[in-house]
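Minutes, project check-in
Item: structure for the 611-residue chain
Input as provided by the requester:
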Amino acid sequence: MSPATLPLQRYLDALHDKHQALDEGTVAAYIPQLAKADPDWFGICIVTTDGYAYAVGEADRQFTLQSISKPAVYAAALADRGREAVLRKVGVEPSGEAFNSISLDPQTGAPFNPMINAGAIATTGLVAGTTAEEQWGRIANIMSGFFGRAVAIDDAVYRSESESGFRNRAIAWMLKNFGIIDGDPMPVLENYFRQCSIRASCRDLACMAATLANGGVQPHSGKRVVPADEVQAVLSIMATCGMYDYAGSWLYEVGLPAKSGVSGGVIAVMPGRFGIAIFSPRLDENGNSARGIAVCREISREFGLHVFGMSVSPSLVLSRVFSALDLPSRRVRSMELAIRLRKVASRIKCYCLQGEVAFDGAEFIVRQLIQVAPGADSFILDMHRVSYLAESAARLLLEVRQLLVAQGKALVFSRIRGRAVVEDALRHALPEGDGGYLSFEDNDLAVEWCEDRLLDSATESSPPVSTVAAFPLFAGMPEPTLARLQDCMQAADYPAGATIISAGQEQDDRVFFIREGEVSVVLSLADGSHQRLATLSGGMSFGEMAMLGKAARSADVHADTAVRSWTLSARSLDELAVDHPEIKITVLRNLSLDLAQKLRQANQLIGVLAA
């Protein structure tokens, strides 16, 4: 399945189309080179903490970082000088003024925060290096670490900023006057102009945001770019000061740490999950990308991304994965079918979900399904432990179901009945024209349905059993002995729906041998529900524990279809064994082998559930 068909990619495509028509705002003109940008450029990119990228539009078009460089340089200063040293020079309070205001804290003389120009220039002077050249090397190095590639500056933009940056020169000299910058402030300012002129794409910025979301580790390279202790500080400043005069409204409405730049870029970070980047040069009255604000606002609302809402790693929604090879259904099949099924059972995958499943958790699950889809036939989503399913998450799951169906594969749900948090979300998220999804009471029934998909239905039908030699309980017996057993058998036929054995029933010592039809062995649970233990068909038997002297039946047995069977009572077997003891010896030996196999299967089940 190509990335273009993934539900989140399709969502971003639609989101891009929707906001492409937004023509509010104007391109920044106070830096002459920025005024040359095409106002219709528009790209979106999301990079997850495990490195998967979704992109649409002008996601790979290069532009300059401008103020989006500030969080990265602040991270470098914190790592190089330590928090205390940086805090003595640059504060952490929102300024309440424009990003290029010429104002300092009246008591300390320090800039209010590192996201306004005064604080950013001061921060540039705090990165490691005894010369401006060494400091620039450090800045370029950390930017390269965030992007996962070497960086370069746009010389034309750099010259334009340097030649027109009179206000920033005044800020730099004021910082020198208050002792915030040591030595000549002009080399520091030139490095600031250079960092703002670094060329980057929307995809690069999404990688930068994803690195912060990933605790400072770049998702693609796996290298640590920022010390984990400093990521929290960087994200805190981005949350309170990153969006110019719109920072408060942004945190209230969108709820993500973010930073914008006057070239039209916006980054937003969902800690532990992913980074978002938007590029669109049209700026609103606050200097933020108009389309960037609109896109982030919609994504946050649509997928419940506000940091003061739910916040868990998306991978935690997946508790375990197993296949039908690990845990087949309890339907007991003929030896021939069991061998055939064992060869392909790994194509049935069961994914057990848990906890609060929001958009990004569902996106994680979708990618897991897509990744293994080429080698799979059916998927089961066990929702028993899901405490919350966002409607946006349900929509992603239903969309991937449609994609899989188009490929001849199946996705079904298990254990959702009576669970409103799941049922309501799935029902509301059903696309128009969708006939609905398939769900099962438990994983066992779901696995059986998927197994049936893998088997040719024609081979499931078999002629009625005509001789007792077909039953495993009598394996190894010679023909004369089998003939004596056949004479002791009694016919017993039941209509569909009949109860053949009731739990607790006594004074019935018969063993049943199915000639034709199917039965289910069902255990009643304390809460009033029922658990199927097995489904049996022609050539199989049940009730064998009566041969071991067990007085009461332990489970119900129901006829799923019309059933034709033979019965053999334990008393008849004992009478036959008086003259032919080898018969009972063989039966008990085969019974012990069968019980040992069932014990192995039970241990296998425990192993899967405990994994």
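Outcome recorded: The two ends are 29 Å apart (CA to CA).
No further action items on this chain.
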